[in-house]
Amino acid sequence: MNSVDLVKSLCKFRKIPISRLEKDLNFSNGYIGQLKKGTFPDDRLKQIAEYLGVTVNYLLGNTDLVMCPICGFGNNPLSEHSELEHLEFHQKFLNLKQKYPFLMNYSDSKKNQLIAIEELRTHHNPEKRADIFMKYFQALYSQELQMNGYEEIYGMSFNSLCERQIDRTLAHSNSYDGINPETIDWLNKKYNIKYNSNVVMENSKYYINDDTAKAAQEIFENKELRVLFDAARDASPEDLHTVHSMLMALKRKERGDYDEGC
Ligand SMILES: [Zn+2]
Question: Measured between alpha carbons, how far is 96 from 206 in angstroms, rounded to an integer?
Answer without folding.
Answer: 34
